[in-house]
């Protein structure tokens, strides 16, 4: 059985949870408190020397880290990861976009508000993250106006990767330019495939 070391409030951990549920895989969830330094203990650093969650521990003790790498491992051989090289590369394209353009804005803004409580000294950064977050959401909007899912006609781990933080973006005041309707329509599209209605906190 897999072990997942993570935080239920983390979008990156939520990706792994969604994937495992879609696959019907059994797993043990091991909660990790990032604010109390549990990712920096010697025991945790043996599992991930980078000191971050999520971590997926396999039955043989191998530990995999970085959420999108874990998604690719879990989805390999399933309908959620295309075998055709062009489509598979497009999945990776969106996962790189998520980590370099989307997550650094949307997730950081959420962290400042949800975990830190919007401290005054980080408000300038928070507003900058909102602005860059709008740009990332606009890129997604352009693609989803053309195709039902991010990689053509079929749901894939590209959608899971970008769904994790996007589906709660309006809660953290990150989507005024698109509105709740925009998030709702995209959320419902993914939810129809995921059959899970448990947003992250």
From TrEMBL:
It holds the Pfam family GST_N. The keyword Ubl conjugation does not apply. Residues 84-201 form the GST C-terminal domain. PROSITE patterns: GST_CTER (PS50405), GST_NTER (PS50404). Signal peptide: none annotated. Keywords: Isomerase, Transferase. Coiled coil: none annotated. The keyword Transferase applies. Residues 1-82 form the GST N-terminal domain. GO terms for molecular function: isomerase activity; transferase activity. This is Maleylacetoacetate isomerase / Glutathione S-transferase.
